[in-house]
Each structure stands twice: as C-alpha cells, then as structure tokens.
Amino acid sequence: MMDYKLEHICSYTGRGASAPELIGTLPEGTRVNFYNKGGEITGPRIRGKLRDAGGDWVTLRADGVALLDARLTFETDDGALILVTYPGIADFGEGGHDKFLRGDIPEAVPLRISPRFFTRHPDYVWLTRLHCLGIGEYRPAARTASYDVYAVR
After folding, report:
1. In angstroms, rounded to a whole number, what is the distance separating the alpha carbons of residues 7 and 139?
2. Distance of alpha carbon 117 from its chain centroid, rounded?
C-alpha cells in the first residue's frame, strides 16, 4: 500500500441564488442548473468568500445520482481570485430522480467532488499543483452546499 495523507485546505458554503433552473429531461438525464449567490470560505490555508457568479450544471440520472459540473470563483481575504472547477456526484437516493421532479428532495443530499484550482496569484499558485477531494452536503431548504476540501499528499 502506498503512503499518503489528507491535508485540510479549506471548507466552504455556497448559497443558491434561487430555486434550481429545470432545463428538462433529455436522453442523458434531467438537466438542472444551480446558480451561486456567494458564500464563505474558512480554513487553515484559504479564507475569504465565494463571488456571486458561477454554479453547478447538473445532470440527474434515472437512478437518482446527479453528475455535477461546477465553476466558482473564490476571492481570498487578501484579494486573490481563484477559479475552482469540479466534477462530482450528488446522491438523491433510491427513486431520487422521480422524487426530485415532484419536489420531494431529501433534507440533506451527500456530495462528493474533485476540485481543481486555477490562479496566477503568487501566494496561491501552490493550489494549482494539488489533487483534491471534497466531502459535502446540499441542504435544499436552506439552498446551501457545504464542503470540506482536502489535498491528497
């Protein structure tokens, strides 16, 4: 077994701008857009806010698993801008596809992501060298998605 460790980089919570935008059911699944309306970033390596832009472009499969495609911008307390992109999954559970369409969404939906960071700011360029994973949850009533992000070292 290879030696590795996880290093906590940051935690963040994004707020949804409004109700999700339902594009509709297509051959590959139901397309839904979740737009970002800011949020907070805390942690040992990054602190700041999520800018009011970006979001998650989601494909909800028939089995209740949603494929995430997210684009966000972090703004650190010292003014750096960091583009964050990630694929991931959200699991709405058994029958989750049909329940979602009826508005019957679980209180908390587990999220798993693989974020990548892009910046030229000299204090944060180290982020571009990382492979990270994020563990989180979506709370539809609050319109929030919260994550803990770790670098695999």
Report:
1. 25
2. 13
Whole-angstrom CA distances from 134 to 7, 8, 62 are 11, 10, 24
Write the CA distances from 58 to 1, 74, 121, 130, integer angstroms.
Answer: 35, 20, 30, 24
What are the Cα distances from residue 151, in Å, to 70, 94, 121?
18, 31, 19
Fold of 6-152: Porin (2.40.160)
On whether the CB atoms of residues 35 and 19 are closer than 8 A, the answer is: no
Neighbouring-strand partners of residue 57: 33
Residues 21, 33 contacting (CB under 8 angstroms): yes
Helices (H) and strands (E) in the chain — how many of each?
1, 11
- Domain boundaries defined on the chain: 6-152
Closest by alpha carbon to 152, among 11, 7, 45, 1? 7
Tell me: pLDDT of 18 over 90: no
Shortest CA distance to 25 belongs to which of 63, 68, 62?
62
Q: What is the pLDDT of residues 30-74, one digit of tens each?
A: 999 999 999 999 999 999 999 999 999 999 999 999 999 999 999
